[in-house]
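Handoff note, outgoing to incoming analyst
You'll be picking up this chain. Sequence as last confirmed:
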Amino acid sequence: MDKNARNLTATGDSATAADLARENAVLKARVAELERLVVCDTLTPLFNRRHFMEELDRWCWRAHRYGGHYGLLFMDVDNLKSVNDRHGHVAGDILLTSIAKALLGAVRRSDLVARIGGDEFAILLDNIQESELARKADRVVAMVGKLRIAHGDIFLAPSISAGHAVIEPGVKSSELLLRADRSMYAAKQAKEGGRTD
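Most recent structure output, in case you need it:
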């Protein structure tokens, strides 16, 4: 067979081996980007809700099957609507992206951070004792509270409320999210001076 024989591509054009290699590389890059989009949030550098829920189910199974110490933090950005109303949605997006980057910097490689709603974030914490969860939530809240984000001629000062739940054997992911959400809501109410009971 002739070494210089040309092959047909998917479009029916003839091409050399080098052309096919380039086309294959382009297709692989496209597939990789599609795979990234399936699990990543469209605004922030975090995972999305879909991937987070799959991972939470997996962590719940792991806790049930093998034991271990795992925790869930659930966070809500305080007053994002007022930032959007006063400074525009671009400012709100910058605020969310800055918070997301700060959260990534506050965890270990074995942890998982996701944006699970418009102004909601969650962190799965690996190898953490129950007694440490509340302190971790407080540290994350304090760290975000120190951010000052430049936007035009103003500085945005974000604030978040955080709740937590222990990932216990036999507890479903939906129940864990509910527990963490209730804990977050209690923290938000306490911050606002409301009742938590």
